[in-house]
């Protein structure tokens, strides 16, 4: 349908809002082709938002004492930052050579789409890990008869590290992918798509949580995520997030397999050849 915009209407005066150049039409096509991949990255941001909210709430209901010092639950995000930083630094020197050795393929690192898929898979594992930690936290809290579980907050470390590795895969690859698949005139829009997925993930996380609480808090029930986590089932919400992320991963694989990466320089050369008389 976009190609019809290239055909001038000779039945009346020309309309600048309907007649577009080949470049403009192709740029719109580039953006439309990216939207399915962009939609899949939104749910990965939901996991990141939960780390900044529900993980901290979970940690606040755990034993934060290290001797006489109390470790702030929000400080656990340091493990996410450290794991993300280390993974990005050592990716080319350690991860890629190991990947080539295991797969026994020619020395070619995973593509951007493959890295996003790996990151989404790790996000699923992170949510499952968080769910199992929550089950044990709640169990020990109920056995002790206290609101604060005697279980150490550092049992959260694996889930924070996994989310950090997932971020390193998804966000870096996503930025590189959108940047490489948009023309020079739309590079900022490609970066905007990458950043907007985080914003959309925040809204989506709020919507999912609101819907879940509306459904699970009927008939006077406390719901899955009440103020006192011992009265709820935060682990169910984490399992639900893992299930949604798994479905999202399946849809992503479907879209990624059908996406054909564009070599922009080659495409631009072909267009120049087309306009030559």
UniProtKB/TrEMBL annotation:
<keyword id="KW-0472">Membrane</keyword>
<dbReference type="GO" id="GO:0022857">
    <property type="term" value="F:transmembrane transporter activity"/>
</dbReference>
<feature type="transmembrane region" description="Helical">
    <location>
        <begin position="34"/>
        <end position="56"/>
    </location>
</feature>
<keyword id="KW-0812">Transmembrane</keyword>
<feature type="transmembrane region" description="Helical">
    <location>
        <begin position="193"/>
        <end position="216"/>
    </location>
</feature>
<feature type="transmembrane region" description="Helical">
    <location>
        <begin position="116"/>
        <end position="133"/>
    </location>
</feature>
<feature type="transmembrane region" description="Helical">
    <location>
        <begin position="76"/>
        <end position="95"/>
    </location>
</feature>
<dbReference type="InterPro" id="IPR000109">
    <property type="entry name" value="POT_fam"/>
</dbReference>
<keyword id="KW-1133">Transmembrane helix</keyword>
<protein>
    <recommendedName>
        <fullName>Peptide-transporting ATPase</fullName>
    </recommendedName>
</protein>
<comment type="similarity">
    <text>Belongs to the major facilitator superfamily. Proton-dependent oligopeptide transporter (POT/PTR) (TC 2.A.17) family.</text>
</comment>
<dbReference type="InterPro" id="IPR036259">
    <property type="entry name" value="MFS_trans_sf"/>
</dbReference>
<dbReference type="Pfam" id="PF00854">
    <property type="entry name" value="PTR2"/>
</dbReference>
<feature type="transmembrane region" description="Helical">
    <location>
        <begin position="236"/>
        <end position="256"/>
    </location>
</feature>
<dbReference type="GO" id="GO:0016020">
    <property type="term" value="C:membrane"/>
</dbReference>
């Amino acid at each position: 349908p976009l190609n019809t915009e290239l055909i001038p209407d000779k039945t009346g005066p020309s309309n600048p809002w309907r007649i577009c150049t080949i470049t403009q039409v192709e740029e719109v096509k580039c953006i439309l082709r990216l939207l399915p991949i962009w939609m899949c990255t939104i749910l990965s941001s939901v996991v990141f938002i939960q780390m900044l909210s529900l993980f901290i709430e979970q940690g606040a209901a755990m034993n934060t004492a290290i001797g006489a010092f109390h470790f702030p639950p929000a400080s656990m995000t340091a493990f996410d930052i450290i794991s993300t930083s280390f993974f990005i630094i050592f990716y080319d020197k350690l991860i890629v050579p190991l990947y080539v050795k295991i797969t026994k393929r020619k020395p070619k690192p995973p593509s951007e789409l493959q890295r996003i898929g790996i990151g989404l898979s790790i996000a699923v594992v992170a949510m499952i890990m968080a769910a199992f930690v929550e089950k044990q936290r709640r169990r020990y809290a109920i056995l002790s008869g206290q609101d604060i579980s005697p279980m150490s907050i550092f049992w959260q470390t694996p889930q924070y590290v996994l989310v950090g590795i997932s971020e390193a895969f998804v966000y870096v690859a996503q930025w590189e992918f959108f940047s490489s698949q948009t023309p020079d005139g739309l590079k900022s829009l490609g970066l905007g798509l990458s950043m907007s997925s985080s914003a959309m993930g925040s809204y989506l996380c709020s919507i999912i949580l609101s819907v879940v609480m509306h459904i699970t808090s009927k008939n006077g029930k406390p719901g899955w995520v009440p103020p006192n986590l011992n009265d709820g089932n935060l682990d169910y919400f984490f399992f639900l997030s893992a299930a949604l992320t798994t479905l999202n991963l399946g849809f992503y694989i479907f879209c990624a397999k059908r996406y054909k990466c564009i070599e922009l320089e080659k495409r631009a050369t072909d267009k120049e050849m087309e306009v030559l008389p």
